[in-house]
Amino acid sequence: MHICAMHMVDRVHVGVRTVLCVSTDSAMPMATVLQLEHPEIECWTGAHQRYLGLAVLCFLLYCVGIPVLMIVILYRNRNQLHSGRVRARYGSIFRLYK
Question: Which residue, among 65, 75, 98, 96, has the nearest Cα to 1 in the 3D structure?
């Protein structure tokens, strides 16, 4: 479970870094804005927009989808959390909580 959580955090980090942008000149508000992870890509242009879509998809999948899936699994099995079958299958989700 901890390895899965670390992997999830890493994937979200990569997704966020993919779309972060920095200005080439902080004193000039209209300066060129480049992607932080790949400075050769200008922000809000074709390549950056494609990465942005992928980053949003990753964010929704990892930050929203997986926790919602875990909540649904726990809710559906809420009356059987102490049975051997449920504990063996889903125990890693809830065993650390008291």
Answer: 96
Q: Is 58 left (phi over 0), alpha (psi -120 to 50) or beta?
A: alpha
Q: What is the DSSP letter of 75?
A: H
How far is residue 17 from each of residues 13, 24, 42, 60, 74, measured CA to CA in Å? 6, 17, 14, 15, 32
Neighbours of 43 (CB within 10 A): 19
Question: Hey, is 27 helix, strand or coil?
Answer: coil
What is residue 94's predicted lDDT score, i.e. its pLDDT? Answer: 79
The pTM of the full predicted model, rounded to 2 decimals, is 0.55
- Using CA atoms, how far apart are residues 36 and 54, in angstroms rounded to an integer? 16
Check if the beta carbon of residue 36 is closer than 8 Å to that of residue 21: yes
In angstroms, the Cα distances linking 46 to 13, 42, 43, 53 are 22, 9, 8, 11
Q: Is the pLDDT of residue 9 over 70?
A: no
